[in-house]
## 1
Amino acid sequence: MSQTVDIAAEPTPFPLTAGRTALIVIDMQRDFLLPGGFGESLGNDVGLLLEVVPPLAALIAAARAAGVMVIHTREGHRPDLSDCPPAKLHRGAPEKRIGDPGRYGRILIRGEYGHDIVDELAPIPGEVVIDKPGKGAFYATGLQDILDAAGITQLLVTGVTTEVCVHTTTREANDRGYECLVVSDCVGSYFPEFQRIGLEMIKAQGGIFGWVAHTAAVIPALHTLTTTAV
Ligand code: TIU
């Protein structure tokens, strides 16, 4: 029988189950996080996103120690932009568009320096990296097949941004039947009010999309799995 540890979460305890859980790290890419990158060029303050890095590094380390599968995602496009719909490419009046040359290479283009994950959270060999053209990690990717093959039914959801790619992925996962625990200090938004309300939306109405908990509750639970694993 699988070992289960209850994590203190909202709106109710989350039953973390050994062998059934994956940690998903959404879009912790240089283009979104670093000064001078795409996120900043959209008029955003990247400082709020950089605050996510230390607690997320600790959570990833705890997951690896507990043998929990770690999956990273990157939002981006083919160099020819054939997978970037006009509605995404042409929206607004940004200083820079996807595919334009930026400080870290062509913006949100696969293979460019800015498209890759920040050094502190770099995947290690054997971890899955999902390249996704949309906001959600299930759209036009192999994520569902990978989770099914590994017997995963629960996701610890982290990354950026809370109200965009984290929300979209959590909603997609919830519709597909996955239990989602969003880790509150490991998700970040450029907008403090969206961060607060984004987390409230997930756990409202009895947990309409999932659960929310802080690393102070999640990391000890992962340590329990580590120390009691046979
Ligand atoms: N990863 C993700 O959230 N992509 C975005 O474009 N987010 C913004 O908030 N702009």
Note: Residues 27, 32, 75, 160-161, 164-165 surround tricarbonodiimidic diamide (CB under 6 Å).
## 2
Amino acid sequence: MPTLTEKKSIRPASRAQGRPAPELIFGDLWEYDPAPETADPKLKARYDLFIDGRFVAPKSGQYFDSINPANETRLAKIAQANAADVDAAYRAAQNAYTKVWGKLPGRERAKYIYRIARLLQDRAREFAVAETLDGGKPIKESRDFDVPMAAAHFFYHAGWADKLDYVAPGRRVAPLGVVGQVIPWNFPLLMLAWKLAPALALGNCVVIKPAETTSITALKLAEIFQDAGLPPGVVNIVTGFGDTGAAVMGHPIAAKVAFTGSTEVGKIIMRSLAGTDKKMTMELGGKAANIVFADAPIDQAVEGIVNGIFFNQGHVCCAGSRLLVQESVAAEVLAKLKNRIKVLRVGDPLDKNTDIGAINSAEQLATIKRLVAAGVKEGATLYQPPGVLPAKGYYFRPTVFSNVSMSHRIAREEIFGPVLSVLTFRTVDEAVEKANNTAYGLSAGVWTDKGSRILKMSTELKAGVVWANTYNKFDPTSPFGGYKESGFGREGGRQGLLDYCQLA
Ligand code: ADP
């Protein structure tokens, strides 16, 4: 073990190993040695569909590229499923449901789910690297948040599988049958766990489609299903674009569909399924308000604001993308915020010191740029810290807009990037009114010293989750979901289980 003084990682960049000083990067006070996080992510060159317990080629024979957003190189080829592949997946799921999974006692299902959680823990580092390569999020997030939280969801729901009598005391719960699920790219593995674990615990079988830019960890998890001996057909993974998603959502065998993604696509799905007897849950967009009162611990609040919007490049539907700050402390909060984001490191997601990694795709980067340009055009004041972004890859500076008004697009539309809009308020009522004045209602944050104010705000804010003196905290025991155009249904906790069963 080197002593602290021997560690090259604490030397200034210009002196490290006689190398020429690298160009100035964000937060560049010191240059660190490369992190050992580049463990072999064991990627295959080509990923097939996972149907009936086996990897199978798509019927069309077509594959598309999964790109590493950090450097725009191809990571792997991913199978493109068509309607016939989706149909085969549903038939396998139905077969598994009627013959095996639906009949197993809960305590037997629990053993499989528990095994999946343990195997995922065993391969945690490999999964974290794969997630970061495929999605662009900083390794410290995939390593410390996404993968452990995905395992936690399997553990938690394994614990429920033999205690289903307590899901709705006095009622008997039964599975729904086969469930179709479509998920987005911001938390590829975690969303997968979040959707699969409750469905499986209750005895359902699943057909699931990951997002087209982030399919790799889903297919790696399929390897774990094989290793865990999960009966064939219980989980089927089909990869592809929106048309594959539409086939998953619309298939006649699906007793329920669960979707996480944009409000726009959620509406398309709801329209297409209107009149069918499918159960539905939707977790859609958000435009959360993070509300800071004058009596809040300001330094702590600034950390919470930074975590709320810059965490995962702002690729979070519950991101605190609107900061509502009480007028008397607005100047202080803004100054501290600017100071804080000056030292955020933007760059290689595999570097464990990186705070803000790569934007997930070229399309998403273009959307962010478009909305930021709209903010400037509408008259808001833009602040971005100086620094050079990597030449290759999709990156965006942390951005703070002040002098924002409620009518600005940046205050109303979901940007899904590291962009914060700052608004001010004077009274509690004004804060509530501004926070609720949005089409969305997924989450909110309140920073104050007063417990009574927290209770009042959490009652009056129309948001599925309200964090108090913290932000972006998740736990499998805690239900998550939205109001209004942020969707309906809950995921996590006992409430989440209710959305995957029928009650008798
Ligand atoms: P985002 O804006 O987060 O990318 P999208 O709603 O576009 O969210 O995508 C979320 C998921 O929905 C992805 O897996 C995508 O392939 C899928 N998808 C896109 N269009 C449709 C559709 N019409 N029906 C079902 N799924 C779709």
Note: The pocket of adenosine-5'-diphosphate is lined by residues 182-185, 209, 211-212, 241-242, 245-246, 249, 261-262, 265, 268-269 (CB under 6 Å).
